Each structure stands twice: as C-alpha cells, then as structure tokens.
Amino acid sequence: MTSPISGLYAITPECADTAQLLRMVEQALNGGARLVQYRSKQADAALRHEQASELLALCRRFHVPLIINDDLRLADLVGADGVHLGKGDGDIREARMILGPGKIIGVSCYGDLQLALDAETRGADYVAFGSFFPSPTKPGAIAAPLALLHEAKRSLSIPVVAIGGITPDNVGPLVEAGADAVAVISALFGDDDVQACAGRFSFLLEKSTHHTLH
User: Fold this and answer.
1) Which of 103, 138, 171, 199 fits 99 for a cystine, CB–CB 3.0-4.6 Å?
2) From 6, 40, 53, 108, active-site residue
3) For residue 2, is it within any domain?
4) From the candidates 34, 39, 48, 200, which is the catalytic residue?
5) Coil, strand or helix at 159
6) Does residue 126 fall inside a structural domain?
C-alpha cells in the first residue's frame, strides 16, 4: 500500500465563509491534492467544528485524508483522519492514545533533524520541515536548507513533507531532494484558478517523482 502522505498536501487558508472554503478545497481536490489539512487560527470553536465536519465529508468523497492542524480535541470530535502537531501543541503519545492506532499524526520539525528523529521514535507518521522559501503565511519562519531533506531521507523511515513558500516554480528541487509531499497554502489558494494550480503542482510532483525513481 502506498503511503497516504505523498504529492500535493493542501493546507486551508483562513476563511470565515464555510461555503467558499469548501468550494476552494473541492477545486484543489479536483486538481489532484492528495491530503488536506484544516488550519484555522482565527475562527471560534463553533465555526471550526462546522468547517472541519464539512471538510471531512468533502474529503471522504475524494478518498483523501483530512488532518486537523494543532487541535487534538477537534480532530477527535469530528473523527478526522489525523492531527498535525507544531511546537507546544501536545504530545505524540497522547495524540495516539486519544485518536487510536489507525490515525495519522504529523509533526512540525522546522529545521531540526533531531526533532524529527525523536518524533519518529515516539510514533509520528510523518514529519514536516520548513520553511524552505520565504512564506507569506509565516513571514518570520525558520529557514530550512535543501540539504536537510537529503539527510532526513537517509535517517528516517517515515514520509517527509516540505513546507514554506512553495510554488510550482520552485517545487522540483524539493522533490528531487527527497520530499514525499509538499504542503501549500498561499500559492494554491491565492491563485485565481485553484484547480488549475493544483493540477500544475500534481503534474510537477508526479514528473519529479518519476524522474527521481529512474
């Protein structure tokens, strides 16, 4: 079975209008997104619950996992496919206990390989490194070098996700360096045609993967 952590990993933008958010995510899925992460730092608990539940139903239609960013309780409540933990967002073992063995737990490791090695030991299903490029979502984010992906692929046996300022123009080197998936917010959801943009990403990711395999 291929890992569900591969290809284009769409991370939702802040959007108070649930119908609009669902339209954008559906376009991303139609364009080939293989994973969706619900990330909202501004919505209140009721809106977050509504949006996460609706997104989960949408992702089910496409047979794509929905991961919840930083909110273990919400992930458990709506029955999402997993949770993504950043620094200080709780413990991997606690998340595993609450969500159960079949769920996906991802961990942000920024530019730190040791964090990733520890996360794998504690039972994470994937790790994310970045920011690889300047990111409009996190302007002050720690920069991660491409060499980190090479090292991570040599040292880890779980999938590696690259994040931070990724666009169709700069995605190639990340896949060639070993990224299994690339997580994108701004370049995808800021595009006038989300579906076409997701399609471009998906095409480039598949092309780079085949290139890397041969």
Assistant:
1) 103
2) 108
3) no
4) 39
5) coil
6) yes
pTM for this prediction: 0.95
Predicted confidence pLDDT, tens digits, the chain (214 residues): 357 899 999 999 999 999 999 999 999 999 999 999 999 999 999 999 999 999 999 999 999 999 999 999 999 999 999 999 998 767 999 999 999 999 999 999 999 999 999 999 999 999 999 999 988 777 887 889 999 999 999 999 999 999 999 999 999 999 999 999 999 999 999 999 999 999 999 999 987 766 555 4
State the distance between the two ends of the chain, measured CA to CA, in whole angstroms. Answer: 20
CA pseudo-torsion sign 149, 150, 152, 153: positive
**Catalytic (active site) residue 39:** yes
* Type of residue numbered 13: P
Residue 209's CATH number: 3.20.20.70
Number of domains, the chain: 1
User: Encoding tokens for residue 87?
Assistant: 């620094």
| β-strand partners of 90 | none
Say whether 96 is catalytic. no
51, part of any domain: yes
Which residues span the domain enclosing 134? 7-213
Residue at token pair 């409009």: 136
Q: Is 154 a catalytic residue?
A: no
